[in-house]
Amino acid sequence: MITRYFIIFIFISLNVLQAQQFSDETMSYDGEIRKYKIYIPSQYDGTKPIPLMFNFHGGGGDIASQIAIADMRSIADTANFIIVYPQALPDLGDGGSTNWLHKDPTDVDDVFFVDALIDKIASEYEIDQQKIYACGYSLGGEFTYELACRLNDRIAAVGVVARTMGTAAFDNCSPSHPTGILTILGTEDNISPYDGLTWYGIQYYLSADEMHDYWIKHNNASETPIITQLPNQNQSDGSTVERYSWKDGNGCVTIEHLKVIGGDHDWPGSFGNMDIDASVEIWNYVSQYNLNGLISCEATSNSEQITDINEFEIFPNPVSNKLIINLNLTKEKEYKIYSLNGELVLSGIVKSNSNSIEISNLSSNIYFINIGNNISKFIKQ
User: Fold this and answer.
1) Which of 58, 81, 60, 85 is nearest to 71 (CA)?
2) For the structural domain made of 313-380, what CATH number should be given?
3) Which pLDDT score, from 0 to 100, does residue 3 have?
4) What class, spelled out in words, does domain 2-308 have in CATH?
5) What are the pLDDT digits (tens) for 27-49?
6) What's the whole-model pTM score?
7) Would you call the peptide bond into 175 cis, given omega within 30 degrees of 0 as the criterion?
8) N or C terminus of the chain with fewer C-beta within 10 Å?
């Protein structure tokens, strides 16, 4: 166990060292000086709008703690999007804990802060207003649901880790467009219980089933999920992952849930479950959507679109010489392999079924492979 976390620490350190640096920014809002870090990808040149992603820390946390578990800089360099990590204010009703949702009575409502922050960033950079996304961990995930519900006219899709939906968000949820929702939840999470939380007859958090049912109905998606058992790539982490996909919603939306069986209050890929990388899963999911639903939905039939965006499998991982890619495509696609600092190091064409890529000339490090809308991470030994 110690060895595994030491290796993870090395990989995170490599990521921080090799990616470009954040810019520390402030914004005056509602009588407060609000702090946030912003990262501009290496590909950005200001000539065309690019997506914007918000990443929210957990309750009592801060920007640094969220970056430590969910540093998306390398993914941003690969996929060309701007990533923002805002800082919550101290909650005087909760002992000064830095929370996105303050306890009553309070005048703090950070949904409006995020709305204003989008405007500020859009005034400084070329932002694709159709592709603004949000994700968060724990209480930051709960706040992400708030944005999906109450700032729905600006947020295209979201990803939430280690939190079900609070009843306050549920009671005030009025989404106006087909909305992509990805959840990553551990079944043994004692902080954010998978089955929700009811205390003395009062429900505070929906169960995972109740929450997914709400978004399935809102998007008019199929009530019968496609369930896929994901490969148990790390058999020492005490957990496995099932993917639930409720397809064929309005705007071709698919609601997705990664059920981490045996998982705790984790950010998979950083700590806890190591079969998936939550950061990669979130980007692969949300990047398929804009404010109208699945991108290019109207131009392509559901069946063709879904087949074309299927994720791919890579193995072995770690790999020494040949990287095998299994995927299902309707046509040939280009693959691109990037280093941690966003440099394109290899590219080519892949076809349906099995493909072999020679990578023996790459130096030992972490790399990202990009095919279509999907990204995967691998380790070159």
Assistant:
1) 85
2) 2.60.40.10
3) 40
4) alpha beta
5) 999 999 999 999 999 999 999 99
6) 0.83
7) no
8) N
